[in-house]
Amino acid sequence: MELIPPGAEILIPAAEIERRVAEIAGEITASYEDRSLVVIPLLKGGFMFAADLVRRLRIGSGVTLEFVGASSYGEETSSSGEVRLTLDTSTPLAGRDVLLVEDIIDTGLTLAYIQKLVLSRVPASLRTAVLLDKKARRRVDVEVSWVGFEIPDRFVFGYGLDGPGGLYRNLGDIFALAPEDRR
To answer: Could you count the other beta carbons within 10 Å of the beta carbon of residue 28?
Structure first.
């Protein structure tokens, strides 16, 4: 049995995540059919969702992977409001179809920043898939094409998202701390 912090509970079980990722992959495949696609996971949290999603894509002209890293959290469990780019793409995006893959939309600041950055590189199209949407904390509007789950305003971790102390990304389920445990 994996150890989790006291007061944490499973919010979304692994089987439900797997089912929803497969559905989103089917919708993305249908949207792109025979076009090539550049998939850009936002690191670190989006890596697990992106890996599972990419393995299920059936895009005739192929998938290219790039990575972007950005942070507005630092060591905290709530956004600082300041977005910092920690890793940038190395492939030109001009004229290419691009799919951003993000773990969670909280305030929307990080995703809005990355979307603006990618759009400045003049892609043919830009769409976004997000595993978790925490609408209660939104500070800026962001356009998202695919959402896995809407969640309540609780601190979540597991399935790529880090928890207290930067731990628990390896868990297959998504856990939530009790509201009073939010640090």
So the answer is: 24
In sign, the C-alpha dihedral spanning 56, 149, 40, 42 is: negative
Residue 162 C-alpha from the chain's centroid: 12
Q: Give pLDDT tens digits for 29-84.
A: 999 988 999 999 999 999 999 999 999 999 888 899 999 998 775 555 555 567 88
Instruction: Return the SS3 of 131.
Output: strand
Q: Are 161 and 49 in contact (CB under 8 A)?
A: no
Distance CA 58, CA 120 (A): 28
Residue 165 and residue 107: Cα distance in Å, rounded? 21
Q: Under CATH, which architecture does the 16-70+78-151 domain have?
A: 3-Layer(aba) Sandwich (3.40)
Q: How far apart are CA 38 and CA 18, in angstroms?
A: 22
Q: pTM of this prediction? A: 0.89
Any catalytic annotation for residue 106?
yes
Q: How far apart are CA 163 and CA 177, in angstroms?
A: 9
Q: Where are the domains of the chain?
A: 16-70+78-151
Q: Please tell me the total number of residues recorded for the chain in this structure.
A: 183
Catalytic residue among 52, 106, 133, 173: 106
Contact between 162 and 175 under an 8 Å Cβ cutoff? The reply is no
Rg (C-alpha) for the chain, rounded Å, is 16
